[in-house]
Each structure stands twice: as structure tokens, then as C-alpha cells.
Design a protein that fits this description.
It contains 10 helices and 13 strands. The protein is of the alpha/beta class. The chain folds into 3 domains: 7-82, Nucleic acid-binding proteins (OB fold (Dihydrolipoamide Acetyltransferase, E2P), Beta Barrel); 88-245, Rossmann fold, CATH 3.40.50; 265-299, Probable gtpase engc, domain 3 (Ribonucleotide Reductase Protein R1, domain 1), CATH 1.10.40.50. It is globular, with a radius of gyration of 24 Å. Residues 219-230 have low confidence and may be disordered. Its cofactor is Zn(2+).
Amino acid sequence: MRYGWDDAYEHAFAPHHAAGLIPARIVRAERGLCEALTDMGTVRAEIPGAAQQGDPLAAPCTGDWAALRPATTGHAAVLHAVLERRTALVRSTASRTSHGQILAANVDTVVVTVSLAAPLKHGRTERMLALAWESGAQPIVVLTKADAGADVASAQAEVSAAAPGVDVLVTSAVTGQGMDILTAVLTGTVVLLGPSGAGKSTLGNQLLGGDLLATGAVRAADGKGRHTTAWRELLPLPGGGVLLDTPGLRSIGLHDAQDGLEQTFADIQHLAQGCRFTDCAHVSEPGCAVLAAVEAGTVPARRLDSYHRLLRENAYAASRTDARVQAGREAVKKNIAQHLRATYRFREGQL
């Protein structure tokens, strides 16, 4: 079994093997069906209704390892169970509801793509890094289209300042610059993350050694591209591992990403240890080491503003989730109370 299967998955799958099920890795899942990769090729399998109800984060998604009951004469293959996830890349839904949306599961490396052919947006990069860190995978920032960049060294320094603890590599699909270094650091299942026009699919084709992913032109006016990747694809890499290409993200909302934010802003977290007050919010408090660093120019004011903005967004998302959970509990209590009242009325009618 390819596509990232290893001894740990083999051990976890043992009970399913005994039940006559086969392992499969899900490429995409929607509307009660999933497309999955198996030793027998690509399989379309039904997803039981119970697996689609309840928490959306528990529903089968791209990258999941699943146990399938093989198809028989007159019956399609059926997804029987999903193995426990090692990692999960989650964002808030585009509708900004309290539910999260899983972009990919069981990812080892998240490649955050940033185009050098367009103005740098460090806030967006920080958002994607927070998602990547929160997932449990290892993020890498890849600056694409180095052949179109005016000052590559300066851009790399800027992005490195916004991504402490993360390798920032420079690549060009045109000249091949940096591709050998990138290939050497990628491990396991690799997901490409970034906005449309960042060159994800072109970069993916370089890694795959062929034009297997669709690419498209980018508008000169704003550097944006169309969603040439309309669905998720899972393809084996020539040197080992698997590449997961995703559609470009127009919206990158945070969902329960506190740990990811702390790692993304590790420099601010470290400075905060020197603040006079342990609950310092780094706004106007006396003795704030973070504000002192901003005033000294060692931390850009933009970065602190981004930190505050993303913390507020994450706190708001968490509050909406808490409100949904509380509403669910209240609904259960209400149903129980209604049932009890109906029971009492029935008993009284029998007297």
C-alpha cells in the first residue's frame, strides 16, 4: 500500500483486516460518497449517514485513512471506519459559522506558498502558519516565482521575520532555483497551502516531475489567479512521500488555533516573559517588554498588530463554538423536560 501507508497504520488496521476490510486513503468526500485510493486503484465508496452527522470535523475528509468494505455484485464499496488522525489542517468555514472545516488530514509537511510576483502580505502568511502549526504538521514557507521578484534577498528576510522557527526557501519553476533544497526537506504527506496565483500547482508539477496538475495564468493587475485546482489530488512523489494539492484559499479563517498562534508569534511570546505583569496584553501597560521591542524597532509594529488581530479573531471563533455547544446542551435539556411533562400528563390521564 502506497500513499503514506506505514507500519503504524498497518498495526492500527489489524482488526479491520481480520474483518475482511481493505485500507484506503481518501482523496475527497462529499454528498455521501468518497473517492479513495487502494491497492486495487481508485474506488468510489458510499459513506453511511451516521458518519456524516454530528461534528463536521469528525466526518471523513481528504487525507484520512479508512477501512472500506469492498464492492460486491450489486453493492458498492462502503466506508466502514476512519483511522485516528495524526494531524488535521482546520480552518473556519467560509460562512463564518461556529463549525470548522478540515482541509486535509494526516499531513506531515505544510508548504505555505508565497508569490514573489505579487506584493507580500505578511498577515496572510502568518494566518497560514497558524493553521499549519495548529495542525501538528511541520510548516515550510516557499517563496515562488523568484525569477519575477525584484529583490529576492530582501523579501526572504522580511518573510523570515514573520515566520520564526520556519525554513523560508526561494524557488523558481522557470529556472529550477531551490527545487533541490525543497525536495530534500520534504517528508511524508506534503500539502500545498496558499492563495490562487501563488504557483502551488506549478510548484507541485516540479516536485512530481511532470505536468500532472492543472495550471493557469495570473492576472497582471493584482497578481491573482483562478482556481485551476478545482478539487484535491493525492499523488506519489518520485523520491517518496505523497503530494496533496488543494484549491487556492480565498478565505483563511482561524478555528481554535491558540497553540498555532503562539508558535507563529514565538518571538512575541518569548518577549512577553519579560513583561512586568503576567497578564500583560501588550497594548499600553507599563513595563511591557513587547511594546519596548516595538519602540526599539526589533519587532515591527505591523507584526504586533497582526498578533492582536488574530488573537481577537480566534477568541471570537472560540466563543461562537462555546455558544453552539451550550445551545446544544440547552436543546437536550429542553427535549428531556418536554418528554417528562408529556409522561406526567399521560400518567395523570390514566388515574
